[in-house]
């Protein structure tokens, strides 16, 4: 919103005899909002004078990235924005934003798991639920939600925040945007954003400047004489934490399944090292988050194509001295470290990156195409979809296929998103393996339409990692994420587990735990497993362990569907239908708990539909009753899903 007088936003003009106040109302709002920070941090935030605050709920970084883009947009409209993590603020002070003229709270909210808030938005969600008497009248807000239509609770968190803020009296000044990651999340965001800003300008009675030039947030500083002990070498947290605070990892083995499909099975061992990323303790059903490293081949190629020395020690320092985000990633560091540990160089670049880099293309046609791809025009959307997304071009491929594009590496590093942790369902039980965590994951590797080979960052990094490196145990930065995917409190409750492919992972932990309970002399209910894969002789994961569990009576039933071993394809839902009478008895009479893990887009939906049909056929229900019956199981925690798309 250009041409907006920022002085009128931060405070009213003082009377001639009065002294200008030290802090504006918004500064005081921020002062009261910040919790858990050092005094110096509070003082720095208090003098910012921002009037657009973009709160984000983000699990994989996309929500935070969109929040940063919106806060940066504000500069083009004469406003000052900041992205804010709600976990770092006392959201009970949110109502004080209403004291600020032309202030706006934007909420970029991702939905995680089964309609849940992200970890960093959990406290905010709890606060919204628990404070019916909160008065947010006068608070201007809008919401952009990030979700995936393949999940049942599509954009549940964003929709809840939007509805709840209105219930508490806040004023929605622009309709919620719904981003679908199963379609084109970037396109959804661009389309919403391009309608959002003109509406905001109209609402506040200001004019957009029309200035679409690139705005740098950070300035480059090269360090020619620096103590290398002060330089980050890939640490996620504290400097030098890798030397004393990581988890050692000896491996099991990589199982080569077929030419097009391989699965990695490994263990991460606690060893004798200190752990700071988390407490190592875990429960069956939890997830492990692994911080991976980019392929050195890609990193070196980026250095070569840009003609730079990757080992120069640099810092990218925020041009806004008052910002609480001093650097885009840990600094000082080298370009090599940034591209290896901190930046995402494998995903197709988002449109804002292409737009900002367009100025560095010497060919006007290249500039035009890059800016076109960043627009919401149908032709631009189609070009971005085909040339970037469908071709799965990462930033290196973009630079290779657009030879006139030669951006400064520091600006590229400023624009690339952070490399995110990868989450895996833990395939072991701490009752049996208290000092190690087992992972089962598909090693991602595929050919693109441009003839390149793209590889999954984390699985290939883990696959190629040596147990020892120069006599030292290899290490993996990681932490445990607690899950609601839990065995029943009563061991006597039957469990029905459905997990084709690598969806078997958490159930290996469940099976190990049920075996341990039996060894302790506890009475354990029926334990039924439904597994599926293509071929028995090629990708039957954990075959020995599963068959041994059945033989020992830990698994009361082991049902396996091999989809390609016969003329007619056979999937887990077909086996469920085959055993419908037994399943209905377990569910309706014996209080069984159902667990589904794996593909959200097809398998999980087909399995749920099958249970609806069983409730109709055996339970004598009509479809609406059957649907409500399964929903009630979910509400009671008796139908749990750990699914992905």
TrEMBL record:
Domain of life: Eukaryota
Residues holding FAD: 422-425, 440-442, 446, 456-459, 644
Flavodoxin-like domain segment(s): 52-197
GO (cellular component) term, any one: endoplasmic reticulum membrane
GO molecular function per UniProt: flavin adenine dinucleotide binding; FMN binding; NADP binding; NADPH-hemoprotein reductase activity
GO-annotated biological processes: response to hormone
FAD-binding FR-type domain span: 244-488
Swiss-Prot/TrEMBL catalytic activity: 2 oxidized [cytochrome P450] + NADPH = 2 reduced [cytochrome P450] + NADP(+) + H(+)
Known cofactor(s): FMN; FAD
Residues reported in the UniProt entry to bind NADP(+): 502, 563-564, 569-573, 606
CDD domains found in the cross-reference section: CYPOR
Name the UniProt record assigns to this protein: NADPH--cytochrome P450 reductase
Species in which this protein is naturally found: Scophthalmus maximus (Turbot)
Gene transcribed to yield this protein: porb
């Amino acid at each position: 919103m250009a041409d907006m007088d920022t002085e009128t936003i931060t405070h009213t003009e003082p009377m001639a005899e009065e002294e200008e106040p030290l802090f504006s109302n918004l500064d005081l709002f921020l002062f009261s909002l910040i919790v858990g920070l050092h005094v110096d941090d509070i003082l720095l935030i208090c003098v910012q004078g921002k009037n657009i605050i973009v709160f984000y709920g983000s699990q994989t970084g996309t929500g935070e990235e969109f929040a940063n883009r919106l806060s940066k947009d504000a500069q083009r409209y004469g406003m000052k924005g900041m992205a804010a993590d709600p976990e770092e603020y006392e959201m009970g002070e949110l109502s004080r934003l209403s004291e600020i003229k032309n202030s706006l709270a934007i909420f970029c909210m991702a939905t995680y798991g089964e309609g849940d808030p992200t970890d960093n938005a959990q406290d905010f969600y709890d606060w919204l639920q628990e404070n019916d008497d909160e008065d947010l009248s006068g608070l201007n807000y809008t919401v952009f939600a990030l979700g995936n239509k393949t999940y049942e609770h599509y954009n549940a968190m964003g929709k809840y925040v939007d509805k709840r803020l209105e219930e508490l009296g806040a004023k929605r000044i622009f309709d919620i945007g719904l981003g679908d990651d199963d379609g084109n999340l970037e396109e959804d965001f661009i389309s919403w954003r391009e309608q959002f800003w003109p509406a905001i300008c109209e609402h506040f009675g200001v004019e957009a400047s029309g200035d679409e030039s690139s705005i740098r947030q950070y300035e480059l500083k090269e360090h020619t004489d620096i103590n290398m002990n002060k330089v980050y070498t890939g640490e996620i947290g504290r400097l030098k934490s890798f030397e004393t605070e990581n988890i050692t990892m000896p491996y099991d083995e990589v199982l080569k399944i077929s030419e097009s499909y391989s699965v990695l099975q490994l263990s991460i061992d606690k060893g004798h090292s200190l752990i700071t990323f988390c407490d190592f303790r875990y429960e069956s059903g939890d997830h492990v988050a692994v911080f991976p490293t980019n392929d050195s081949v890609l990193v070196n190629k980026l250095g070569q194509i840009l003609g730079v020395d990757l080992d120069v020690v640099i810092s990218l320092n925020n041009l806004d001295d008052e910002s609480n985000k001093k650097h885009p990633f840990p600094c000082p560091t080298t370009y090599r470290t940034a591209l290896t540990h901190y930046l995402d160089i494998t995903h197709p670049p988002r449109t804002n990156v292409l737009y900002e880099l367009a100025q560095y293309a010497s060919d006007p046609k290249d500039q035009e195409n890059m800016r076109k791809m960043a627009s919401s025009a149908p032709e631009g959307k189609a070009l971005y979809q085909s040339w970037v997304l469908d071709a799965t071009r990462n930033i290196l491929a973009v630079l290779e296929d657009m030879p006139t594009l030669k951006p400064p590496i520091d600006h590229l590093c400023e624009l690339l998103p952070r490399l995110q942790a990868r989450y895996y369902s833990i395939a072991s039980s701490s009752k049996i393996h208290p000092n190690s965590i087992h992972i089962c994951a598909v090693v991602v590797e595929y050919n693109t339409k441009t003839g390149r080979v793209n590889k999954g960052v984390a699985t290939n990094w883990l696959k190629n990692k040596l147990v020892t490196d120069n006599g030292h145990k290899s290490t993996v930065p990681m932490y445990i994420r607690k899950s609601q995917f839990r065995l029943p409190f009563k061991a006597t409750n039957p469990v029905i587990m459905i997990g084709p492919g690598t969806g078997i992972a958490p159930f290996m932990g469940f099976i190990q735990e049920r075996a341990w309970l039996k060894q302790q002399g506890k009475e354990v209910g029926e334990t039924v497993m439904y597994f599926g894969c293509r071929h028995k002789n090629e990708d039957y994961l954990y075959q020995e362990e599963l068959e041994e569990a059945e033989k020992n009576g830990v698994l009361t039933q082991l049902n396996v569907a091999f989809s390609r071993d016969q003329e007619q394809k056979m999937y887990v839902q077909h086996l469920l239908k085959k055993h419908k009478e037994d399943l209905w008895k377990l569910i309706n009479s014996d209080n069984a708990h159902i667990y589904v893990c794996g593909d959200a887009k097809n398998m999980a939906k087909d399995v749920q539909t099958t249970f609806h049909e069983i409730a109709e056929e055996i339970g004598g229900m009509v479809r609406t009753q059957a649907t409500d019956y399964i929903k009630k199981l979910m509400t009671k925690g008796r139908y749990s899903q750990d699914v992905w798309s």
